[in-house]
Specification:
24% of the residues lie in helices and 40% in strands. By secondary structure, the protein is α+β, with helices and mostly antiparallel strands. It has an 18-stranded mixed sheet that branches. Strand 13 and strand 14 form a beta hairpin. It is globular and about 60 Å long.
């Protein structure tokens, strides 16, 4: 117990969008010094978003060598990596010199690249200006391709009709930090009608090398999109899943859905009115897929302080 309440600032962001109140919501605690694991998990439940990111500032030299220490929590667990918290946290730190007198913040913001020291390792996020807006692009770990799933098993776990699954593409697990089984569907109608008891999917995944299922279709809403996606998990539906977009990009390049090094857009969150745009690309040389990048825009919505 503490004698008096401790106060921690937070920044609320919408990630993978240029419009406030769309995209995927994120809270960033820019200085989480002193918080225990239990307290971070409790705060993530209090914010009740898909993820909350906690930053632990270190001296400038350590941050230069190892990156800015960041930990990511869902309402239920700590994750080794997640996409929209990585982009959102880097965005918040990139702009820190406008609001903070700290030497570390000034050093970070002058760089066009922010490197985050996550549990999965160091992830760089490079910033450029596009049409007057700041655009961030993270380079994820090289993908690990896992098992090919049987369509019948996935249909049984999800309640999908077997003919709704696109048999021209494999259902395959791919990971750049989190393992997603990419499930290709034939139509927007099929993906829009997804409805299943998450326990059934969790039970199915427990017997595989995948942690989650990521559903995609080549039928899209926006003429600029290459894929339309949905991701349903234990906290509901995710408006944008950056840690799945990277594996999806690697899968799409390997199986000819997206050309090597072509910049493509994945749209997500449409069904829950949190429209998100994730820009992806990856490089294929022979049998190897590398250089997986996921980018997008971020909008700051609010700032506040939590005390407890």
């Amino acid at each position: 117990m503490h004698d008096k309440p401790r106060r921690y600032a937070f920044i609320h962001l919408d990630v993978f969008t240029t419009r406030p109140l769309e995209g995927n919501q994120l809270c960033v605690v820019p200085d989480a010094t002193g918080l225990s694991d239990h307290e971070m998990q409790a705060l993530a439940r209090e914010f009740n978003l898909a993820e909350t990111a906690f930053v632990f500032p270190r001296d400038v030299e350590t941050e230069r060598r190892r990156g800015i220490r960041t930990r990511i929590f869902t309402v239920q667990e700590e994750l080794p990596f997640a996409g929209h918290p990585t982009l959102g946290t880097a965005f918040a730190l990139h702009g820190a010199d406008r609001r903070s007198g700290g030497a570390g913040a000034r050093t970070r913001a002058k760089s066009s690249t922010i490197e985050l020291d996550l549990n999965v390792g160091t992830i760089p996020v490079e910033f450029t200006m596009e049409d007057g807006r700041l655009f961030g692009e993270m380079t994820q770990r090289d993908p690990v391709f896992g098992q090919i799933h049987h369509a019948e098993d996935v249909a049984r776990a999800t309640g999908l009709n077997l003919r709704d699954i696109d048999a021209s593409l494999p259902i395959q697990t791919v990971s750049t930090g989190n393992a997603f089984a990419i499930v290709p569907l034939r139509s927007r109608k099929a993906i829009g009608g997804l409805s299943f008891a998450y326990k059934n999917v969790a039970d199915y995944c427990a017997g595989t090398d995948a942690k989650f299922l990521y559903f995609v279709t080549r039928e899209v809403e926006s003429k600029w999109a290459a894929l339309h996606a949905r991701m349903l998990f234990y906290n509901g539906e995710d408006p944008a899943t950056g840690s799945a977009a990277g594996p999806c990009a690697a899968w799409a390049v390997r199986h000819g859905v997206i050309a090597s090094d072509a910049k493509a857009m994945i749209e997500q969150g449409v069904e829950i009115k949190r429209r998100s745009h994730m820009y992806v690309r990856a490089t294929q040389k022979g049998d190897r897929v590398t250089n997986v990048r996921v980018g997008g825009h971020v909008v700051e919505v609010m700032r506040g302080e939590v005390s407890f």
